[in-house]
From TrEMBL:
This is GIY-YIG nuclease family protein. The lineage of its organism: Bacteria, Bacillati, Bacillota, Bacilli, Lactobacillales.
Amino acid sequence: MEMTHVWNLNHPLTKKRRTTQTTDPLAYWDDQWQSLGFLQAANFSPYFREIGLYRYKINGKVKFVGSTVDWLKGGLRRSLSEDCQRFLFAMTFARGLIFLIDFSQIEVEILIPGTYPHAIDTTESLTQKYLKRDKPLWNRLLY
């Protein structure tokens, strides 16, 4: 990863403090993901009316990236709950392929980039960037 150096002119102690900044647009956001544990036992209730991204991982590999900006209809809680139901049916026969998925192995992570309505553009932009970078298998099979 390429690193560039910039001057932080707003630093309170010095007008010329040198800081390091990456050129990877997702570097900051990669550290902001919160784990909810495994899908089978995850509690989505606290995320009612929250907008943001979510992803499913198995053995550390991203399998699905999704997002929601519709906070009035339940936000992340609704999207995560609906995906659980959809995966139970759709993943069995996705495009003619049979999947054997152990739902106790799917780890759920969420990323909340801000509050409604300010984070809508950020959420949509990050979703596209993560889909492009990670190329999750389930996104390609289901959509």
